[in-house]
Amino acid sequence: MTCKPFSVDLSQDESGLPHYQPPPCQVACPIGTDVASYVGLIWDGKMPEALEAITATNPLSGVCGYVCDAPCEPACRRASSDGAVAIRALKRHVLDKLGHDYRLAPVRPDKAKKVAIIGAGPAGLTAAQDIALAGYHVDLYEAHSKPGGMALWGIPDFRLPQDVVQDDIDRVLSRCPGIALHLDSPLGDKVKLDELRETHDAVLLAIGASGGKKLGVSGDDGAHVIDGVTFLNRINGGERPILPKKVVVIGGGDVAMDACRAALRLPGVEKVIVAYRRGPDEIPARAHELQAAKAEGVEILYNIAPVALEDKNGGVAIKCKKTALGAPGADGRRAFSLVEGSDFDLDCGLVIAAVGQKSVSLELAQHGLMDGDKIFTRASDMGTRLPNVFAAGDAAFGSSTLVQAMFQGHKAAYYVLAALEGVAHPAPYRTPYRTRNVPVAQDPLWEKLAPKHAPFLGLDNSDPFGPAEADYDDKTAHEQAARCYRCDTETGSSDYSVKARESIFALARPEAGPVDFAAATRAKLAKRPDPQLAGPATFDELVFLPANLTRLVIDPYREACKSATVLAGMKLAQPLLVAGFEDAPETIAAAVARTVAETGTAYLGRRPLPGLGAPWLQIIDGAEAADPYANAVLLRVREAAVLPEARPGQLRGLIATAATLEAALACALAEKADLVVLDGSGHLGDAWADLAGAPDLSLLPRAVDILRAAGQEEAFPLVWFGGLRSGSDLAKMLALGANAGVVDVASGLAAGGAIAPHGLDFAAADAEEAGPRLAAYLKAATSECSMMARCCGKTNVHNLEPEDLRTLSLRAQAALGIVMAGRKKIA
Fold first, then answer.
1. How far is residue 247's CA from residue 352's CA, in Å, rounded to a whole number?
2. Dihydroprymidine dehydrogenase domain: from which residue to which, for each copy (predicted)?
3. Domain of 124?
4. CB burial string 804-819: b at 16+ within 10 A, e below
């Protein structure tokens, strides 16, 4: 199914790259933010484009720049070396610069159906935007006087300024005029579920978990005890009460960290203590927030559990016991037990209980929708016990992070849209991963640049509730963006190591947690359908086996392999010939002729290029006569094969296709041909023959097999034509038995041509640049070929052999006779 606002089928990727594998940071982000692209755009100074990439799936981008828990950063590959890329801080830098004024064109509703969403927090706002962008009317009800949910009411200003939240909300509402916002409209009071179901086609419950849990010990309802959620709501509402000198926060999560730091900023407070019942390795607070609390002077006490609260001298005596930790439970958290005889009192003036949140709704309970302190919600389709009533966010699945709530908003919107559009069985929702194919940063210092955290201000700000962390300056943001490995660019082929790279890294990482090697191995060995049943094998399905896996390693960077080539007495500087330019504009053809001579190669074609001072291999058909100035004459074999007539000293050869191979080789052996060109495209001699279609790579191993069977492997050199693009492609054909290769379209593109319906168009090409550009391409291709050979332990590119290769597909294995990676032999 295809549902708006997702403009593509969720089973495919919008990028159009068939083998695109999202990088670890993108996979770790619940909403699939295109991290690598926006980081690359920041480095390139393209801030508006970076802002588009950030906000594409994230309606609360500004909020996330300040307080996202950034699951992308631990997933960053660079985290295991000198530190993760500062992804969250870079996001904030972009939003701080441009977010306030950033607006997209409004998308007005064009459908009659309406959806009611209760709760304008992260989940509700995200779902509202998605549904409105699909063309539906949305009534968004919020119990408070301002929208934003816990992002606005639960996170203090020093971590998240309220104007940042408002900027994000304004951006959503300006883009989606179909959203009608109703404030001061709590469910059960001004808003009734039955009425909403009558007036709307679907209802989404995103009421959040705004109730704080009690400690569950005697005295926890005393006058000097307040839950963390209520405390933060009041602070965010503008209250600045005078508190006792000593405040104790009980808990270890995000609310506890926000509450302790907020308390420290209030008048009257001299000391704040956080008491947590487990150890420092188990505390759920994020390391960044925990470090900030400590830096501001908050004291953290571990392995302490309150057992009772008693009034004492106008304050509170917290009766405590020390705890001992046991084995992990079903939720992965270690159980704890109270240590007998470890009793002590912790005196203070105020206790803030930050031990969890709950969702409370009498209205929903009366409809049988509550399951304890949460709404009964099916994770499979976000549905509840009532038809066309959905739920998302903390009220549905318990307290989570901001970005998890937005993920649930996206997911709920997907299933709401399916219901509105009458899709009974929509495809299971998954986060759509997309890439903008941003060029990789070309920063020479990218390896050496150290991570740099955004400046921490703490309590030094003149306004105690002003931002506790500053933004990067432009120079720092540029440098930090350059640190990205750009794992997203490791795509574009069916290389197994790309598709399975994360499991490979998990198995290879010794410092990682316990890994079930047997299960991981079984998962990789599971039989799967062959994804490449149709079509011929391609160069991308053929790879080299490096020397460090086969033999003594020879440093590939010490010196280049020799690449000089001799073809039937013709001495060439490289095993790469040029073809295709005889119909190009004369100025382009002349420039190519000079380059062919200067680079020490040869030209293959029906006519010589103007002023060609290099060997020319002439292509002829049937009864065509050989040009006396040609160094070699090559007859295209159609049916019967006969070597062409030639002058004394002129080389003679044949051009064989898949259909004429046997006849051509028989003739070449019988009449002692000087060379044979294997035409994998079947169209060599036509204009830009490579455009005719994919080459038949099996032609080369077939030719080698025929010659080997006749005991004539060295009878004459074999030249390959068809599909060559790069030095790696050339090296693969040399390893399969060719002595040289021919490029036409690749060389034409290098010289400035553009693909057109009739072949290549040089209308926009610069004749002065054509020669140097072609020379650079030939040099790069030869160097790449040399590097591939060097990595295989060779000192000469002509020493490459089939044993240096592996195939990556069954069809390539069958076509080339090269064993597939992971197999010992061809079955």
1. 8
2. 23-97
3. 114-210+359-420
4. bbbbbbbbbbebbbbb
Cβ(810)–Cβ(535) below 8 Å: no
Tokens representing 358? 């709950």
Tokens read off for 76: 């960053």
pLDDT at 507: 63
In sequence order, the 6+-apart residues with CB closer than 8 A to the CB of 250 are 215, 256, 274, 275, 276, 306, 318, 351, 352, 353, 354, 355
Residues of the chain with pLDDT under 50: 1-13, 492-495, 512, 549-553, 556-557
CATH number at residue 65: 1.10.1060
The string of pLDDT tens digits covering residues 696-729 is 999 999 999 999 999 999 999 999 999 999 999 9
Residue 81 lies in a domain: yes
User: 364 and 352, same structural domain?
Assistant: no
639 occurs within a structural domain: yes
Distance CA 75, CA 36 (A): 13
> What is the C-alpha radius of gyration for the chain, rounded to an integer number of angstroms?
35
Q: What gap in Å lies between CA 111 and CA 156, rounded to an integer?
A: 39
Check whether residue 321 and residue 349 sit in a common domain: yes
Element (H, E) at 56: none
**In this structure, what are the phi and psi dihedrals at residue 72, rounded to the nearest 5 degrees?**
-65, -30
Q: Is residue 587 part of a domain?
A: yes
Domain CATH number, residue 124: 3.50.50.60
According to the model, what pLDDT value does residue 551 have?
46
Query: Does pTM surpass 0.90?
Result: no
The pLDDT of residue 533 is 65
H or E element in which residue 364 lies: helix 362-366
Answer yes or no: are the C-beta atoms of 215 and 307 closer than 8 Å: no
Which residue do the tokens 């997309």 mark? 434
Cβ atoms of 660 and 637 within 8 Å: the answer is yes
> Does a structural domain hold residue 823?
no
H helix runs in 698-766, sequence order: 699-709, 727-736, 745-750
